[in-house]
Amino acid sequence: MEEGGGGCRTPTRDIPAAVVCPPPPRKKAMYLKKRKPPKNGYFQPPDLEAFFAGPARTEACA
User: Which residues, at least 6 apart from 51, have a Cβ–Cβ distance to it below 8 Å?
Assistant: First the structure.
């Protein structure tokens, strides 16, 4: 390699103009697929209120 003049220099060629960025990719089309109900039906708990009721409360403070 040949070193001439030493030091750093500003490039003498033209600097290319800024390139425009490409647009973002398009989103895929959203579609909802209609589902059929299950053949055996939905789960029906025997007594949901009793399940979440918890233990009976007792009056501790009078």
Answer: 45
